[in-house]
Amino acid sequence: MIVTVTPNAALDVTYTVDGLVPDAVHRARDVRHRAGGKGVNVARVLHALGADVHAIATAGGPTGSALAAELGAAGLAAELVPIGGETRRTTTVLSAVDGSVTLFNEPGPAVTAMEWALLTERVRRRDPEVLVCAGSLPPGAPADGYARLIEGRKSVLDTSGPALLAGLAGRPAVVKPNAAELREVTGLDDPARAARELMRAGAGAVVVSLGADGLLAVTPAGTWRATPSGPLSGNATGAGDAVVAALALGLSRLEPWPEILRRAVALSGAAVLGPLAGDVDLAHYHRELAAVRVRPEQES
Amino acid sequence: MIVTVTPNAALDVTYTVDGLVPDAVHRARDVRHRAGGKGVNVARVLHALGADVHAIATAGGPTGSALAAELGAAGLAAELVPIGGETRRTTTVLSAVDGSVTLFNEPGPAVTAMEWALLTERVRRRDPEVLVCAGSLPPGAPADGYARLIEGRKSVLDTSGPALLAGLAGRPAVVKPNAAELREVTGLDDPARAARELMRAGAGAVVVSLGADGLLAVTPAGTWRATPSGPLSGNATGAGDAVVAALALGLSRLEPWPEILRRAVALSGAAVLGPLAGDVDLAHYHRELAAVRVRPEQES
After folding, report:
1. ipTM of model
2. Where in this chain does the record put each Carbohydrate kinase PfkB domain (chains A, B) (predicted)?
């Protein structure tokens, strides 16, 4: 079983507007609510692929109840750790005119030491085959929170900043930063060099998401570039989460890297075409699986 | 007592961001929640002035509970009509960089005939000296809902489109459209001519808010222009509600028009300087009361 952990889960609210104009009043034509946070989105993608996945997330207050209700309605296997604070919201504004996607993220509520211990215990009891730790750490969580969850478990880590750096001590099998997150924690502009830095600090492998340019994977078995068949326009919000879903599935099936990367790029494109984060266009996914280009790179 | 009615009340959420950039991800530095909707804002301004005011609004679901809690904490005398639908949210994004104010308004939940009848009954029982009907009518409310509330009562009507046109049949003492709302319902570009159209259709007087240019009042006693002492920068969201508060207070005190308009312009500026809709900067209000210019206009 794959277990995803989302310690700073959110209720994602999506507004569709005619066009986003700063300093103006907008009427939301369409309002949608769904459970979110990176790990929840990863679980949603894995569920769509029929994988055996279980989501562990925090939830508190009325917004946490709304999150729980939506997870149930979506049929996702999930376990919610009750917290005293109120679950945060993220608001996504989709412009029907130009397709722009503008996000407003609330900071998350703090968690207590007891709540964090409960979350840790839930993960331990599930004894996951592959663990996915995704998203930011909430205020109050220990700085090395992800490292302690990951230690001794085959894991994918998708976070940024200090939580990413501290998480490396747990020796995750794969970390998945995007180019900006990688630059931020290493200070290096070259993604391949920066990835090797993270491997020296504890990452088993590093898969860097490069937006429309696809993925760069730096692993002990070699370095690969995986690129999509063509450009796509849509909502890129959940694209990184789809990559993480593919990485977790590949780890659980012990697939070779080129296979994993092919699926990751195809799923990422399928997420761009899905209307909301966590949605994937399965028809695109199956078509694109054959079209993704994966080639080994020379070590620089 | 002044009673304000807000049939499509909202929980106003305000995010402060560093700058609003379409197609980008924003972290809300500061998140504030308060009860809103035009009538609630009007009541908040009147409460700040020490007036005897009572707010009647709809509230439903967890968002309605949050609205009720905030009203209570603010010390506003209010009566909430429970509805089965969930109270809507409005999201205001304040840019700390350029001061822009961008709003996203959810459509309101529908009300049933029973819920509307309950709201009507609450107004009847309060027997207001002055009634303020403000904001949009929710789906499910009768098209002439405001007209029936207003009929036989000294009232201020602040709404737009079909709700405004239908509301005129109740013969409100004053209606307060802005220039765009006035143009929309009359098809006329000249505010004075358009105002006289609304008076022929039932309005006792028309006070048109012209943004930074102040107010134009067309009344049976004469026509006046009231202009602020100078330009202000701030959050103009609640400025119209402050004007309505001044109109209601003036009607309840039977003040002469120049006096009412002076207070309306001063309060409107005080609302622009207040951080959130419904807040007024009382120091500015008192200074500006002496500085507002009110002059009679020739009938055209």
Report:
1. 0.87
2. 11-275
